[in-house]
Amino acid sequence: MAGARPQQALLSRDTDLSRTESTRAVIEGMVDGLNDHRIADIGEFFSEGFGWHGNQGCGNKTGLREFQDNWQKPFQAAFGDKVCIDEARLYMGEWAAAFGRQEATHHGPFMGIAATGKRVTIRYMDFWKVVDGKIVDNWVMVDFPHVLAQLGRDVFNDEGWEAFDRGEKIPPAP
Q1: Which domain of life is it from (predicted)?
Q2: Pure H helices in 36-143
Q3: Over the Cα atoms of the chain, what is R_g?
Q4: Closest Cα to residue 26, out of 44, 51, 1, 52?
Q5: Quick check: pTM over 0.90?
Q6: Cα dihedral sign for 69, 74, 76, 80?
Q7: Is the pLDDT of residue 1 over 80?
């Protein structure tokens, strides 16, 4: 059975490859700023009305203030010693992407769990669009289920597909 063939890559179709190095400079500076735990002056890298589009549990932020108040501050309250380690970064014109992990100690409230003092790994992927030297959009996937599992909470109630990988359950077939 053939799958649907919707139009693909609309957002990046008209990418201007001459902007690759300027995009790289913005993203590298921003990641350094996040690793320095900057909040008040992080706007140096973001347009005032930028969109931050997170997966379930992360939320969606519109504008710098929402990003600072509803992402940076609670994240740093939960994981104040976090260090971001991008395992790969890709740049293409005004677009950039990265995946990696943050290593941190859980020392503040996170998703209803009080501080445990446990070290955690927080896996993520980011996709950014940079226009005129500022990030205008950021699509984010943060693996909160993995973090919660490290803190003793299985959000999948033993129904995660890892059981297939371990041979504990048989996966359904179409």
Answers
A1: Bacteria
A2: 64-67, 73-78
A3: 18
A4: 44
A5: no
A6: positive
A7: no
